[in-house]
Amino acid sequence: MTNWKPPIPIEPYPSESLGGFLIRYCETNGWPSYHHFIRLLGLSLSDVRYQKGDLRDIERKLNMGPRTLPTSGSRQGMAPGFLGGEILSRDHFHGQRRVCRRCLAETGYQRSYWELRFITRCHLHGETLQAECGCGEPLRWTDTSLSACPKCLSAVPQSVRTHSEPARPFQEWCLFKLGLIQSNHSLPQLDDLTLLDAIRAVEAVGLLETFGYGANKPSDTSYDAVDVREAGFAVIREDRIAAALALVVSRYRKRTGVLCPRRPAEALGWFGTFILNGWRHGQTLLLKSIVRSLSEALGYPVKNPEISSYVSLLEVARVAGRRVEELESGVEELGFGDITLRIGTELLIPVERIYDLRTHIGEW
Ligand SMILES: [Zn+2]
Ligand SMILES: [Zn+2]
């Protein structure tokens, strides 16, 4: 290894993947076997796949110029899961090499974001990323050419059936978040989240929009995450959260007969649990807007999704063992008219006034 000097050094492109860069290096220098090339570098395939080695060491061995490898690895140790300053888990990387054949034909290099599982479409050409040539031959990280197919000898992978895929604005937001595209995809309610939190939030909103109220979250296998995330992103971008929550709350009320749940988030089923977990970890713009929408849907102000601020007199009557008419006249005598709310036939009072009512009417 110490005496090896690569004959033709090449420079990486911005957002080129390390695996793709090494294939291109191998191709440029005419190495007949990728394995041989990787061994010469003193690496193993899993070092490259999981980016375990030291980037600077590879840069030195490749005799690279002042520009350094732009990869999906961190600068130290190349731990998988770093891209554009975002921490990603290994699960978010697609094991297989995927490409947009048109990008490849036009520019001749492998993009780092093609490795991301949540990116399925080329934002430039509108085609689904493909993991095999149209002849059926899979694309591999051990290929000695980025474009040419070893089986059918096509210069660029052949098209697989029809690859046109509908626009994926959320995927474009992800690329924007990763600093990979500059266009105007900013969405304030998501911009203050980490990429992974944003993916989780958008998916949850999409599930709520798709399936409505449910005590349990739909299982991962019962939906297509790509479509659901796009649906959730559209709801947030088009400001339709309030409408989505209104449907869910009305379904909850019909099922349970409860007007003011003890914890307002309960009216949202499993989505409420999702909100509560987030709320305890910090109130992001998105969470605040969801809680605002929950207020609208419930018809009374919610400051904290964990604590109900209002209670129905019907509920108080049930707990206190009093008649609701008795409580209603108590509320009137106390002059609480301004602070009560009416939803349908029921009268609501702020929770903190129950004590006054109890004192006024007599212990219960
Ligand atoms: Zn493309
Ligand atoms: Zn082929």
Describe, in plain words, how this protein is organized in 3D.
The structure is a single chain. This protein has 364 residues and is mainly alpha-helical. It has three domains: 167 residues, no CATH class; 121 residues, no CATH class; 52 residues, no CATH class. Helices cover 41% and strands 4% of the residues. The chain is built from 15 helices and five strands. A three-stranded antiparallel β-sheet has the order 3-5-4. Helix 10 packs across helix 12. The N and C termini lie far apart (87 Å). About 3% of the residues have low confidence. The site of one zinc ion has 8 residues, from loops.
Apparent shape: elongated
Strand content: under 5%
> So what's the oligomer here?
single chain
Biggest beta sheet attributes: 3 strands, antiparallel
- SS element count, helices: 15
Mean pLDDT: 86
Q: What's the β-strand tally?
A: 5
Looking across the biggest beta sheet, what order are the strands in? 3-5-4
The percent of residues in helical segments reads 40-55%
Number of domains: 3
- Measured between the Cα atoms of the first and last residue, the distance is 87 Å
**Structural Rg:** 29 Å
Which structural class matches the secondary elements?
A: mainly alpha
**Poorly predicted ranges:** 70-81
Order of helices and strands: HHHHEEHHHHHHHHEHHEEH
Which ligands does the model contain, each kind named once?
A: zinc ion
